[in-house]
Every structure is written in C-alpha cells, then in structure tokens.
Design goal:
The chain has 228 residues and is mainly beta. Helices cover 2% and strands 34% of the residues.
C-alpha cells in the first residue's frame, strides 16, 4: 500500500512525525551527524514516520545532508559496481557510503523534539494520503515509480532481503530560513562555490529511491538516484 506525501502549511509544535525542515525529532542518545569530508554539522532536511502496513511501520527516518562542502565525487550516493537491478549489497557498504549525508533510523516513539538545533530549512508538515492525483513530494511504500529502468536491489550481505521504503521526486526544493548559509555546489570550473538559490537540494535534485533491510536490527538504508 502506497501513500502520497503532500506538503501542507502550519507552525511546528514538536508533535509532528512527518515534516520538512524546522527542528528534528531525534532519539535522546543521538546528535546531529557531522560530514566525514569537511567535519561540519550536517543540515536536517526532512523526516517521515512509516505508517501501518509498511515494512518499517513503527520506525522513523531522518535525512541529513552536508550543505557546507561540495565534492564532484560525492554529489550523489556512491553506486554499486555492476548491474544495479537485483544487486546484492556488500556488508558494511550502507554504513561506509554515508560520508556527506546521513540516514538516521529510530523507533518513532523514542523521538524527542530537538530545540537546540539551529534550523536552516523552513518547516512544512507532510500529510500522508492514499495515492491519488498529483505528485506531492514523493511516495511512501508500494512500488517505486522508476523514471528509468528498475534498479531495485535484492539483498544485503547475500541474505537480508531489501524492501522499497519511499521515493522523493525530482527538483524538490528545501526552502532556507532567513540567514541560513547557502548550499555549496560544484561550479563550472569544478571548484566549490555558494549556490545563488534560496533553497537546498538533496543529491543535486535527482529522483531519490530509498530501500531498507528487512531485518531491523539495525535498520539500514540504501539510496540510489535517477535523472528524470
């Protein structure tokens, strides 16, 4: 069963479970991840609580991205070698590839409103609704809407099945709060430079597909992108 993720309006109260920007809800033993490439705190983009009937029901996923640095070798998540469709993901790959981004997965009920986080992205609640007309910001559950060929992985470590979690549509803009630092991007000369835009983008605005391990101890996330 799939759900459409629809952006709505409203002020953050700290009770929301699915939202873009603002301050994250995180488990008490966690902290904002730091970029392996530059050491800066990563920017919180969005989080979702997976609904009932989903393979990860009861869990939440918070997505962080470094907006402080830009490296042409790390604009999108590292890809597996060879054919992606039906691939077996090597052990440790899903922890080692998180260099300038981070996927934090935790029991939804353990999330606490992090009032200390200096927000950079404007807050927008996300409403989950049964798939209908319109695109929204993406889909949770169901079947991926591939824009190219099906690149679903098969297993992790040769034995743990992988399942589709959600996808984010192309061109999604994470609007910056006033005074937030611009996202660094790779310029025409190949050197990092500040973006002129008033928003951040995840993985240069590509369509992003998220898959997760069937085994939830620990839950691991595999993300791949396609160009629409």
């Amino acid at each position: 069963m799939s759900h459409l993720m629809v952006l709505t309006e409203g002020a953050q109260t700290g009770t929301e479970e699915c939202f873009i920007g603002g301050k994250p809800k995180l488990p008490p033993d966690s902290s904002v991840p730091q970029c392996v490439l530059c050491g800066a705190d990563q920017t919180f983009l969005f989080q979702v609580a997976f609904p009932g009937e989903h393979v990860w029901t009861g869990l939440s996923l918070a997505v962080f991205l470094c907006t402080n640095c830009a490296d042409e070798n790390h604009l999108i998540p590292e890809m597996l070698p060879g054919v992606l469709a039906g691939a077996d993901i090597p052990v440790n790959f899903l922890t080692n590839y998180q260099r300038n981004f981070h996927f934090l997965v935790f029991p939804t009920e353990s999330g606490q409103f992090d009032t200390r986080y200096p927000e950079r992205v404007k807050f927008s609640p996300i409403r989950l609704q049964r798939t209908g007309s319109g695109l929204g910001m993406g889909l949770i559950g169901g079947t991926p809407a591939w824009v190219m060929e099906d690149e679903s992985p098969r297993t992790y470590g040769s034995r743990v099945p992988m399942h589709f979690l959600l996808q984010i549509h192309a061109g999604l803009e994470f609007r910056m709060v006033q005074g937030a630092p611009p996202q660094m991007e790779v310029g025409l000369a190949g050197e990092p430079e500040p973006s002129p835009h008033d928003f951040y983008q995840l993985f240069i605005g590509n369509v992003v597909y998220f898959f997760g391990t069937e085994t939830r101890t620990p839950p691991l996330v595999y993300a791949i992108t396609q160009v629409s």
